[in-house]
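Exercise 7. Given the encoded structure of a 347-residue chain, write a plausible sequence.
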């Protein structure tokens, strides 16, 4: 289920690129980014209110509050701001190459700071996915050193953002996305309006908000759900397929042509996902008592509670607040929301 969520997230986000091109008349890139983020928040608002996400966020543990603030400041503000200054110093085609560093930083941060385990097969898959992403964007020229450092800084911020959001387990992915989109959208739109006037009509504005709900709101929420089940590193590597769906959308929507390089890059990515997704490990480990909320089902050994008034929920994926008792056991696992622990040399 987590893999499916990651692919749906990638499809929705990837299609935003060709569709966004049709909306840029009268809207600057920063203004469009603000509208997309705000569209995500507006679209998810009914879900957040019905789930009382605005109340749950206030009752979160301090660790989760810090992660949410970090995700908003780094992913919603710091990343776009660093990218903006980088784009002002280099061509967008050149900067696209540097954006592949987000996956690199996500993998490295996961390994060294966030206990997001990758085995030999996982590292092989990660290397292949990064190679495919670089190949897809190759040919855009070399950006200047300053621009490259700024874009690298943005990617570092987004790498932290990916891991922070993957570890927030007391509010739903929808609530997480809502608060991030609200702040990021307001910031991006404000900066865009300061830099230049707003010249888009109502139809284009509403189109941008609607696209934001699907390609940012649902996409980010699905990505967070996938990261809860796969870990941020694996979810990000699967999400790296987004540019390929963007290429497919450009062919269907904008009439662009598919190049041999794009075909080769797509084949490399598909081949890279195979070792990544079969990479698991087994060892004895312990879980402390915890109460949290995330997408789950009852057949994987960690969720023993039952739903007497909704029997189907005992068999289907669903999300709600629940509590785990302390337990020690051994089974094959991924670095999902339950399995962020240190590994000895035997692993």
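Solution.
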């Amino acid at each position: 289920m987590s893999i499916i969520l990651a692919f749906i997230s990638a499809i929705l986000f990837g299609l935003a690129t060709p569709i966004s091109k049709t909306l840029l008349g009268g809207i600057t890139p920063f203004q469009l980014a603000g509208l997309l983020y705000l569209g995500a928040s507006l679209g998810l608002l009914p879900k957040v209110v019905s789930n009382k996400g605005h109340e749950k966020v206030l009752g979160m543990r301090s660790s989760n509050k810090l992660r949410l603030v970090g995700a908003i400041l780094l992913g919603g503000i710091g990343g776009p701001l660093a990218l903006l200054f980088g784009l002002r110093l280099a061509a967008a085609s050149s900067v696209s190459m540097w954006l592949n560093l987000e996956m690199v930083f996500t993998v490295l941060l996961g390994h060294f700071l966030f206990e997001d385990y990758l085995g030999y097969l996982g590292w092989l898959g990660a290397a292949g996915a990064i190679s495919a992403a670089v190949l897809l964007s190759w040919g855009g020229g070399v950006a200047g050193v300053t621009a490259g450092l700024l874009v690298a800084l943005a990617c570092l911020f987004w790498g932290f953002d990916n891991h922070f959001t993957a570890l927030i387990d007391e509010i739903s992915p929808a609530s997480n996305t809502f608060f991030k989109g609200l702040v990021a959208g307001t910031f991006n739109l404000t900066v865009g309006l300061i830099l230049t006037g707003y010249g888009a009509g109502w139809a284009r504005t509403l189109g941008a908000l609607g696209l934001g709900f699907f390609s940012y709101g649902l996409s980010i929420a699905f990505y967070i759900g996938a990261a809860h089940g796969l870990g941020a590193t694996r979810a990000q590597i699967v999400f790296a397929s987004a540019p390929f769906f963007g290429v497919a959308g450009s062919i269907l929507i904008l009439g662009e042509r598919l190049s041999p390089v794009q075909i080769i890059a797509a084949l490399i990515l598909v081949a890279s996902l195979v070792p990544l997704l079969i990479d698991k490990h087994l060892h004895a480990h312990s879980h402390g008592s915890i109460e949290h909320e995330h997408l789950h089902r009852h057949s994987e050994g960690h969720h023993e509670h039952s739903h007497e008034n909704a029997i189907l929920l005992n068999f289907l994926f669903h999300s709600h607040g629940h509590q785990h008792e302390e337990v020690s056991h051994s089974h094959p696992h991924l670095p999902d929301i339950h399995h962020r622990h240190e590994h000895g040399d035997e692993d």
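Remark. Residues 2-281 form one domain. Students should compare their own answers with the one above.
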